[in-house]
Amino acid sequence: MKKIKKSFWVKLIAAPIVMFFFAFAMVPLYNVLCDITGFNGTTGITDGEQQYVVNEQNEIEVSFFSMIMPGLPIEVKPKFDSIKIKPGKFYDATYIAKNNTNKEVVGQAVPSVAPTVAASFFKKLECFCFNRQVFAPGDEIEMSVRFVVEPQIDEKIKDISLSYSFFKIE
User: Fold this and answer.
1) Is 64 within 8 Å of 93 (Cβ atoms)?
2) Residue 41's pLDDT is what?
3) Which of 24, 101, 151, 159 gives 88 a disulfide partner, CB atoms 3.0 to 4.6 angstroms apart?
4) CA-wise closest residue to 125 among 102, 93, 78
5) How far is CA 93 from CA 19, 53, 102, 126, 134, in A?
6) Burial 52-91, CB ≥16 within 10 A → b, else e
7) Tens of pLDDT along the chain (170 residues)?
8) What is the torsional sign of CA 121, 127, 130, 136?
9) Distance (Å, rounded) from C-alpha 112 to C-alpha 38?
10) Burial (Cβ within 10 Å: 0-12, 13-18, ≥19) of residue 42
11) Residue ranges with strand state E in 24-132
12) Inter-residue contact 37 to 120 (CB < 8 Å)
């Protein structure tokens, strides 16, 4: 029988450990990449102190959507299907959520912007998606998002979709 070298055993044990730590680090690395590039429709956050010059010549229609993931017994819909905006100006949008059960439900919204190239110019000052939402039994609540589209956005972009996917939190 052939003798196995010590370096083989070191590699055999080290490989799964390295793979585990790499997989564990992928989520934060992916989130950083999405924040920087706007990849996957991830929007940015603004601190509200930044002032923008409003681009009065450019008008963009922002459409609002919502999707409820399985297991979350609520209804969520935007108050308005869309609004016309001027880049550089702050706007408010409202979503209405209703808990259709007799139990308290906790959910979290995850935003997405399309087209993807517009996501890096779409900044939120306030958003219900920043926190978990607690829905009391039978309760209907209004949830707000305050946003701005930066004036540097390509003027060829005339439509932006803001979508929220709602997930149940245990």
Assistant:
1) yes
2) 47
3) 151
4) 93
5) 43, 21, 28, 10, 20
6) beebeebebebebbbebeeebebebebeeebeebbbbebe
7) 566 778 888 888 888 887 777 666 666 666 666 555 555 545 555 555 567 888 889 999 999 999 999 988 999 999 999 999 999 999 999 999 999 899 999 999 999 999 999 998 999 989 998 889 999 999 999 999 999 999 999 999 999 999 999 999 87
8) negative
9) 10
10) buried
11) 44-45, 60-68, 74-78, 82-85, 90-99, 105-114, 122-127
12) yes
- Unique residue bearing structure tokens 């564990």: 24
Cα–Cα–Cα angle for 97, 70, 98, rounded to 5 degrees: 15
DSSP lists the bridge partners of residue 99 as 74
CA distance 68 to 20: 32
Alpha helices, DSSP H, located in 38-138? 116-119
Q: Taking the C-alpha atoms of 121, 125, 129 and 131 in order, what is their torsion angle to the nearest 10 degrees?
A: 140
Q: Please tell us whether the domain made up of 41-168 is placed in CATH 3.40.50.300.
A: no
In this structure, the strands spanning 159-168 and 105-114 are antiparallel
Supply 163's token pair. Answer: 């979508």
Domain ranges, ordered by start, for the chain: 6-37, 41-168
